[in-house]
Amino acid sequence: MKYISLFILTLLLSTSAVFGQVVDSTIFQLNSTQLKKAARKASAAGDYLSSILFYKHYIENKPNDPNFLFHKDEMTYELAENYRQARDYKNAEMAYHKVYELNPKEYAKALYYEALMQKMLDDCGKAKATWAKFKKAAGADKSKEIAVLKKIMKNDVSGCDSINIYKNKGPVLEITHLDTSINKAYMDVSPFPLNDSTIIYASLKSDTLMYFNRADSARVPPVSQFYIATKSGGKWINKSAFEGPFNIDHIGASNGVLSPEGDRFFFTRCEKNWKEESYCHIFVSAKKDGEWQQPTEVPEPVNMPNCNSTQPAIGYESGKEYEVLYFVSDRVEIGAKGGKDIWYSVYNPNTKAYAPAKNAGSKINTVGDELTPFYDIDAKIMYFSSTGLPGMGGLDVFKSYGELNKWTPPMNLRAPANSTVDDIYYNVLPNNEEGMFVSNREGSIALKNEYCCFDIYHYVKKVRLGLMLMAFKAENKQVIKILTDNKIEDFKDKEKIDSVEIKVYVVNDSIGAEDLLLYSYRPGKNDLSFVKLEQNQNYRVVASRSGYFSNGFEFTTSDMNKSDTIFQPIGLHQLSKNPIVIPNIYYEFDKADLTKDSKFTLDTTIYKLLLENPNIIVEIGSYTDSKGSDDYNIKLSQKRAESVVSYLIAHKIEARRLRAKGYGETKPIAQNENADGSDNPDGRQKNRRTEFRIIGEVSKYSEIIYTE
Description:
This protein folds into four domains: 2-166, Serine Threonine Protein Phosphatase 5, Tetratricopeptide repeat (Alpha Horseshoe); 173-460, Glycosyl hydrolase domain, family 43 (Tachylectin-2, Chain A); 465-572, Immunoglobulin-like; 580-700, CATH 3.30.1330.60. Helices cover 24% and strands 29% of the residues. Strand 6 (253-258) and strand 7 (264-272) form a beta hairpin. The chain is built from 15 helices and 34 strands. The strands form eight sheets. Strands 6, 7, 8, 9 and 10 form a five-stranded antiparallel β-sheet that branches. Strands 11, 12, 13, 14 and 15 form a five-stranded antiparallel β-sheet that branches. Mean pLDDT is 84; it is low at 1-19, 211-216 and 701-708. The protein is α+β, with helices and mostly antiparallel strands. Helix 6 runs antiparallel to helix 7 and helix 12 packs parallel to helix 13.
């Protein structure tokens, strides 16, 4: 979306976007063409306050100019855009409404933005009515701009439909507006935690509205610079400027992020080219012998000519554990989803080079804008803000589990982290119990209007959830009672098992998607393992050990609104080579094809067990009753066993883990006939059975040839 492009990518760093120009009153004596040119020049430079003055004077004082009569709708629309970019939502709403009245045929898009302003002013009822009007008015417009707005509108409306959920069912947080030594009258942004009591952030330190005359070349305008804030006595206060070669008098700096090892500092600088076009690129400084070195521009393919690369975030990929640089860019390479997207590049420490940048994928990126990513390495969570997903306001904060271009569906953080306006730069401190974000919500320090300026906010999680696990030797495969009031003392006499591997997954609700592995570890035999949990999340836990059946369970924290640590025992049953009967495996009479009911039974029994225990090899044994010849029954039972094996292979179970064996009528478990010689239907049904038994473990054999 255009205004986000100008606002987030350049306004935070561009001096012209921060200051109003000292306006010479003689400018209002210019003719309409000259005044219009001055208004557009100020807007292009990001000087929205001056631009608004020029547009208003043009519209109010040039009504008799013939040139004005042909451009009144156009100029009113440009005035509305400047109000929106200055986050003066009330005046923007009125200006967009006026534009549509002036020229409904050409400016149906004004209705979309009028509705957006209404939503951000917390009036979803009025916004939905205006969007319905926009949909009707723009019905015949096939332009790309209108097509994008229609797509985004669907999520805007969805956000309004769920507004009560977003307002009332978010994680319980205590929000604090940071000390005025940190938050000033302009933009205070991009907080990044160095540790639990220290952050670095970007700010332009002033408490009053400043004006700068761009025609005065002797004056260098102040710019945003990096500062350090620390927590003392529970209160965050500004400490000093961030020492190092980062703060330059004439070039703004923002979006700082430290590498996990603390030896490199990534950040953004924006500069204008000869066309007065502003481009933002990512720079990096290395620390050597305790000193930060002169920053250098991160090379291609991260930074590219004629496009923006900004807002870096650092993660690791779980394969080779190479460092991953996530960043925001408006590049239009293959994979771009539209607007501003989150991209990534993997850094190879051997070649000291970045791999070609790739789009983070359609789970995260939309036709709108995705901005200000923060990657929580320990939890494997990407926090980011988006205009293209259902939310409360303009930019809402979302989180998604994953890495690179594989992510779970994004979750809206809801209130109080989100508001009806713009919420960005959400992060988590190392203790995982608090963090920072940036917002222009009501209550931020304001200059020209109540939503004008971004401030930094601190949050503390009021609900802390944990899971305590214990694996013990069970007599039978336990059906786990999930999240009940299990008490440790009730299991103190159970035999704990050593060398157990615990895996904790986030359940991925996307169709066909794999669950995301968060943690994999082996607690000591006498240790209780502890796992931190997030609110409003679905989890799966699996415990496994060689020689035992794996066991696990799924649960959700969606209804947990109070701090709690849940004790959950997991019983593991030793593997046995005794045959286990699978109930209700039926076939059509005299056929080997599985019925629909039989497939369901396989899905919920042996298939599930094979997934949970990827190391075991099983034999599928099939049996018949005594009707028919011995030879015929052997062949029929073999085909039935093979049909089970084929079904499991089709469902991604490795063939080397499966053996099919037909036993015919050789091993009855009930009488086929009664004592008086009459037929025994119940006994025959029991004999027409399918069993499986464990015959080995994959890790112990390169190949198993089944023999009787």
